[in-house]
Amino acid sequence: MTTSVATSAAGSPPWWAGNARLVNLSGRLLGAHVAHAGLIVLWAGLITLFEVSRLDTARPLYEQGFILLPNLARLGYGLGDGGTIVDGHPYFVVGAVHLISSAFLGFGGIFHTLKGPETLGGSYAYDWSDGDKMTQILGSHLVLLGGGALLLVAKAMLLGGLYDPLTQSVHTVTPNTNPAEIFGYLFAGKFWLAGVDNLEDVVGGHLYIGIVLILGGLWHISSKPAAWVKQLFVFSGEAYLAYSLGALSLMAFVATLFVSVNSLVFPTDFFGPTLTIEFDRVPYFVSTSPVDGYSSREWLANAHFWLGFFFLQGHLWHALRAAGFNFNQGQVTENVGGRVAAPTEQMAISQLKG
């Protein structure tokens, strides 16, 4: 099964179909992804420079409506004694580097969209239904994610350290390598992973997850899916989109928890007081202490929560379509994974829709 979209009168997918138009054009889809990465990096660079232009070092970051500078500050950039910001130049450099990088990504996206081959060939060729190739692509992504986790470890140990709100200072961090303590957070109390209360465990957790991701990535690159895996999962463009959105939704909700309650990873010095959840028709997260306007923590927590919510809706939508469910007819109409819904199931689904 492949992703399908409505077609225009000319027989080609309409512009609003987005990347679904490129589902069978791997070269053009690569261009779209590279251009998308360029837009993300461009946004990061522009907003960082915008926040630098408005930075008032005499006021807390969380009172100035910033969402990027607090993240740079917790990495130890531009800080003096007591966690005070004494130099905005590192923030400017980060913004400028992102801005320059976005230009290269943008050119790459334009090249693959206009000049590159429509369909990749050779070792880069792939088909959505080819589980062997898909697991190699998955492995490559896992290796990159693992490298990202290890970059934080390198920053903590070798590249100047991190800001520690417990001592209100920037210092290097030696990771805790005790697996019982690190993985014990998976079975911790009400705040789960967000209950971490020291940087040694934070860095140790990134060390372990980085190694696990890289080893898992290498395993996926060098192996092929077992028969039971191919039977369990759907191998199609729509299914991969559903899997990705589900993972993004989970990470967004975990980030919401961390931002809301953890004052170690998200120091109150930069993000404002921790939050509680309230309901007024819909849930939203509010500060536990009076703040002049909305704090950076409130902006980030609410943004992550609602992004996670909509990612979840997208996951469910695409997962049902990948499983052969036809929303126009309100029933499973395609045979995916060797099974199609029985007539009684289709009747029940139709009744629920009605």
Automatic annotation (TrEMBL):
GO molecular function, one term: chlorophyll binding
Signal peptide: none
Top-rank taxon, per record: Bacteria
Location relative to the cell: Cellular thylakoid membrane
Keyword Transmembrane helix: yes
The entry's keywords: Chlorophyll, Chromophore, Membrane, Photosynthesis, Thylakoid, Transmembrane, Transmembrane helix
Membrane protein topology class: Multi-pass membrane protein
Transmembrane intervals: 30-49, 91-111, 142-163, 202-219, 240-261
GO cellular component: photosystem; plasma membrane-derived thylakoid membrane
BP-aspect Gene Ontology terms: photosynthetic electron transport chain
Alphabetized InterPro entries for the sequence: PS_antenna-like (IPR000932), PS_II_antenna-like_sf (IPR036001)
SUPFAM superfamilies attached to this UniProt entry: Photosystem II antenna protein-like
Pfam family of the protein (one): PSII
Entry protein name: Chlorophyll a/b binding light-harvesting protein
